[in-house]
Amino acid sequence: MARRSLIAAVVATAVVTALVSVSVTRLTGQSARPARAADGKPNISGVWQVNNEANWDLQGHDARPGAVTQRGIYPYAYAEVAGAPVLALGAAAIVPGSIGVVQGDKQIPYTAAAAAKKTENAAHWVDRDPELKCYLPGIPRATYMPYPFQIVQSTNKIQMIYTFSNAARTIHLDNVAGPPDDAWMGHSVGRWDGDTLVVDVTHFNDKTWLDRAGNFHSDALHVVERFTPISPDALRYEVTIEDPKVFTHPWTIAMPIYRRLEPDVQLLDFPCIDFTEEFMYGHLRKQQLVKHWEGDTIAVDIRRKVPPGEQLFDWYGK
Amino acid sequence: MRKRLLQALGVIAVILAVIALLRVAPAGSATQSAGKTAWGDPDLQGIWTDEYQTPLQRPAKYANKEAFTDEERAELDRQRAGILRRDQRVEIGSERDVAGAYNAVFQSIKHTGKRTSLIVDPPDGRLPALTPEAKQRADTDRQFRLALLQATQTCKDGDAACAGGKYGPPSPRRAEVPPFYNTGRLNRSDGPEDRSMTERCMAAVLPDFGGYRRIVQAPGTVSIFYDVGQGQGWQRIITLEQVAHPPSSIHQRFGDSRGHWEGNTLVVDVTNFSPKSDFLGARENLHLVERWTRTDAKTLEYAVTIEDTTTWTKPWTVKQEMSRQDEQANRIYYEPRCHEGNYGLPALLSGTRSEEADFAAGKGPDPATKDSATDFGTEGGVDALTGGG
User: Fold this and answer.
1) Using a CB-CB distance cutoff of 8 angstroms, which residues of chain B are in contact with residue A31?
2) A54-112 confidence digits (pLDDT tens)
3) Interface contact B216-A155, CB threshold 8 A
4) Which residues on chain B are in Cβ contact (under 8 Å) with A277?
5) B chain contacts of residue A157, beta-carbon cutoff 8 Å
6) Is the same domain home to A296 and A194?
7) Are the C-beta atoms of B93 and B99 separated by less than 8 Å?
8) For residue B137, what are the CA distances in angstroms to A170, A222, B178, B282?
9) Which of residues 42-81 of A touch B (CB under 8 A)?
10) How many interface pairs between A and B have CB atoms less than 8 angstroms apart?
């Protein structure tokens, strides 16, 4: 009798284990995607993307009529109108609002001089943001740009590959020394702290930004990222940002990163070196196409012919 | 009877459970056998490069010779070392002198490789014949390039770079749009599109036979970062899980890579190339089948069969052996920042605008008489002996 119970118990346990394992495999999608990698660490391989407005501004902000605005009829910032570079795009140019991803008191602790520079950066966004020139995005910005990125998780290395500009970085879990120079993407050394991937990033230059709002750093930047699975298809991404030349103390941002669940998802070309040539060099053409110089001013021609029969213009006249 | 059924079911369930556990969580028990990843795939990871100089095509003088002996390689290296041309200068300040600025000091001179050509098929080590349409394309492209060169000293002197062209006044064709999307250096700088992909920081192409590559694997994915030199590089993702390529309306500069394991070999099928990428004249119709095999701890064999029925009359195959590179020594090799520091391209454009203004004001030569497209033809450098360059 005892023997029979034991057999029954073993059978029941085994059946349950088998069923659970099979169903976990089924539920997680296209092909088997175990929750753990072969070395027992959380399996974070795959295509991921944030779903937020952090790249517009890490801090909480209201929606704006465009990435570039200019004074309307009122003197208030909240009553500005879309500026010429984006006006032609209508509502497609609107910048969405956000509650912000800065933790704690929601403030970025700039020194007084750095705060002034941030304000100036924001005012000259089109000329200064390295994203517009298709420069390497740096860390942490690469993570929360609004495009998918892929994690290729091996045992000693984790490769993170970003859609934007085909940028990439290798996270060394085997403690490779940093490069003998600074870098746009920094030098990433990772370790697993329980189920959290902790990445210590150093060796930055001072050329990348943190968002499109002019938030910036110096070459003293030190970033510590923490990637923690909160479900099979979501990670918590927490970043501590330290830079004694720019900030009075370290500060933290946090956001979820979501798995792209389309069975056929893949990173596709984002050839922005090619696509930004007109933006960067258009005024140097022999025959100018879209932009040209007038003295020390860049002029971008956004005049366009409206096709006949467009109701809006028929109604409202010209 | 019921008990036996129960026992049988139990055995099956236990086996299933063990298999499932082994698949899902072999934590701690993962023993990484030599040449395999922790999850059991062949391990191709590391930094790799071909350390030897081997020309793509076999030079005519080695027509019936597939491989060099060790003695021949040593002798070729001895001869090549004698002609490094570190100090070679021509008329100081001339265009020709400037073109030689990248002398041997700036170049990686590799030891002579085992084989006389990278091409192993066709067996003569030569590229197969172009199709008639590819010949026509190449000729149309060449005629346009020669027209843009025809007022230069290069053509006046009859340099190799002007072969098939003539010397004369600036051609009216200088005002034409190139016959095909340009990827090489035109002798014109009307806009960025006239300059080469190298000058535009987009030089990389697939297949790639030089440079360094870092391979990182995960179950279902092989990633390769290619460092192709000149501060340029790109990140490739090979998907192993899904066999089907995207529809042909999707174009990728480096194609779309789908792989699978055949024993210890990673076999990758690459299609969906872009009309903006050019590999020896092949563009969106390029089709590659690559075979990556770790043959020993320090060697990765790479073979690729290259096919484009609109370009070559038959497929051809290249094979090379890459050697594992030291991680510490190569830690600088993975940030392509050519574009971020590309002062050359705007300088080429704005310099040409200045020359045009000077010429218009009667203060300088017609920019059309200057050569910014060729290095005046090769005169046989260090790799002339092995046929490369």
Assistant:
1) 220, 241
2) 999 999 999 999 999 999 999 999 999 999 889 889 999 999 999 999 999 999 999 99
3) no
4) 192-193, 200
5) 45, 216
6) no
7) no
8) 41, 53, 12, 11
9) 45
10) 193
Question: Are residues B331 and A32, on separate chains, in Cβ contact within 8 Å?
Answer: no
Question: Which of B4, B24, B278 would you mutate first to test chain A, the one with the most A CBs within 10 A?
Answer: B24
A250 — pLDDT class (breaks 50, 70, 90): very high
Q: Are residues A118 and A252 in the same domain?
A: yes
Choose among A11, A24, A161: nearest Cβ to B223.
A161
Residue A209 lies in a domain: yes
Chain B hits for A270, CB-CB cut-off 8 Å, are none
Q: In which domain, by residue range, is A304 found?
A: 281-317
For residues B8-27, average pLDDT: 47
Which string of b and e fits A200-211 if b means at least 16 CB within 10 Å? Answer: ebbbbbebbbbb
Q: What span, in angstroms and rounded, lies between the C-alpha atoms of A292 and A278?
A: 10
Q: Domain count of chain A? A: 2
Residue A40 located in a structural domain = no
- Which pTM does this prediction carry? 0.88
Asked if pLDDT for residue B37 goes beyond 80, the answer is: yes
Q: Which chain B residues in 252-311 lie under 8 Å from chain A, judged by CB atoms?
A: 252-253, 256, 274, 276
Residue A4 lies in a domain: no
| Amino acid at position B91, single letter | E
Is A70 within the bounds of a domain? no
The answer, for A286 touching chain B at a CB cutoff of 8 Å, is: yes
Residues in A closer than 8 angstroms to B200, CB to CB, are: 273-274, 277
A203 and A144 assigned to the same domain = yes
For residue B19, what is the nearest residue in chain A, using CA coordinates?
A18
Q: Do A241 and A103 fall within a single domain? A: yes
Q: Are residues A182 and A287 in the same domain?
A: no
Kindly give the residue spans of alpha helices, DSSP state H, lying in chain B. 2-24, 70-81, 95-99, 132-149, 153-156, 344-360
Could you read off the pLDDT of B223-265 as tens digits, one per residue? 999 999 888 999 999 999 877 999 999 999 999 999 999 999 9
Q: SS3 for A178-228, per residue? A: CCCCCECCCEEEEEEECCEEEEEEECECCCCECCCCCCECCCCCEEEEEEE
Contact B35, B41 (CB under 8 A): no
